[in-house]
From TrEMBL:
Family annotation (InterPro entries): LysR_HTH_N, LysR_subst-bd, WH-like_DNA-bd_sf, WH_DNA-bd_sf
Domain HTH lysR-type intervals: 10-66
Keywords: DNA-binding, Transcription, Transcription regulation
Stored PROSITE patterns: HTH_LYSR (PS50931)
UniProt feature, compositional bias: Low complexity: 298-309
UniProt GO molecular function: DNA-binding transcription factor activity; transcription cis-regulatory region binding
Family stated for the protein in its record: Belongs to the LysR transcriptional regulatory family.
Positions of the UniProt region annotated as Disordered: 296-323
Statement: the UniProt record of this protein carries the keyword Iron: no
Name this protein carries in UniProt: HTH-type transcriptional activator CmpR
Length: 323
């Protein structure tokens, strides 16, 4: 085996060299590192001696880093990154027995998010879960305020900038009372929605947003009969005959008749959406959160058998990281 010689430089010296090369100035590096200028100069001098290489040359009233210094800076950055990975691994070895996973899911996820969390805590029994279930706007607010690290939602916002992985389809179906005349038709034309009584979720709901976008795209104008604050309230109101509504297929029983409703075979439906697991791109995730992301990537959730048989193609951006 090849013998690895220990470097003839300390991390302190390399940290200083990195700042000097990046900033092109001993003075500015000293300010950034909260060191005196003579200390910075002495560390650079020691490095030059140890490596037998010139790292900075005089230029005007300041200095100019040499090519050797640029190379050394690149090597130092590699070492720092490797060290960071090592610290993560060390924490994984000792630390993941404790920790908190702070996560939020939009309303419909309440029907199955507990199963995902159960699988995760089976692998990581020391992790405590803090789960919030709320509508889309409230989940986005929690991400902005950093009250949570991870969120499960559809239609992620542009701000804050997020990364994510696609999880599973969320088809939004049109439901009506079981005895509604539309439920006896093989195909219901979209134009029948014009003037029909429609129930909507509250403002801030992703289901509402997706429904409104779809209605706008189709040029349909139903009559908004009522606004209700939860999926369950929508189901009960539809069953009671107050109106029709779009709702996640996952919020319904395998046999929707058990909820007193039926899925209307309307042209252009279901509205195809997809849930994503997202997190802020500008924040470093805790180990507990990173492990959850890895866990969901390794074991993506299967859509329950209730999902309609012909899912639409995945929305764009599904394979990428940024959302
Ligand atoms: P929300 O949930 O309507 O409560 O925002 C959206 C969703 O369930 O995907």
């Amino acid at each position: 085996m090849k013998t690895i010689r220990p470097p003839r430089a300390t991390f302190h010296q390399l940290r200083t060299l990195e700042a000097v090369v990046r900033l092109g100035s001993i003075t500015r590096a000293a300010q950034e590192l909260h060191l005196t200028q003579p200390t910075v100069s002495a560390q650079i001098h020691e490095l030059q001696q140890a490596l037998d290489a010139v790292l900075v040359e005089p230029a005007g009233r300041g200095i100019r880093p040499t090519e050797a210094a640029q190379l050394l800076r690149a090597a130092a950055l590699d070492m720092f990154a490797r060290w960071q990975r090592f610290e993560d691994e060390l924490q994984a070895l000792h630390g993941l027995e404790r920790g908190v996973l702070r996560i939020a899911g939009v309303t419909t996820t309440e029907y199955f998010i507990a199963q995902w969390l159960h699988r995760y805590t089976t692998e990581h029994p020391g992790i405590e879960i803090e789960l919030a279930v709320d509508n889309r706007d409230a989940v986005v607010r929690r991400l902005r305020e950093e009250a949570i690290e991870l969120a499960v939602m559809m239609m992620p916002p542009e701000q804050p900038p997020l990364e994510g992985v696609p999880l599973m389809d969320n088809p939004l179906v049109l439901i009506a009372p079981v005895d509604h005349p539309w439920t006896r038709l093989a195909r219901v034309p979209r134009r029948l929605l014009d003037g029909a009584p429609l129930l909507l979720r509250e403002p801030g709901s992703g289901t509402r947003l997706a429904t409104e976008e779809w209605l706008r795209a189709q040029g349909r104008q139903p009559q908004i009969r009522a606004t209700l604050g939860s999926n369950e309230a929508i189901k009960h109101a539809v069953a009671a005959g107050l109106g029709v509504a779009f709702l996640s297929r996952h919020a319904l029983a395998d046999d929707p008749a058990r909820d007193g409703v039926a899925i209307v075979p309307m042209a252009g439906t279901p509205i195809q959406r997809r849930w994503m697991l997202v997190w802020r791109r500008d924040r470093r995730l805790s180990l507990a959160a990173r492990r959850f992301v890895e866990h969901m990537r390794a074991q993506p959730p299967q859509s329950p058998a209730t999902t309609p048989a012909s899912p639409a193609p995945a929305p764009p951006g599904d394979t990428g990281q940024a959302v």
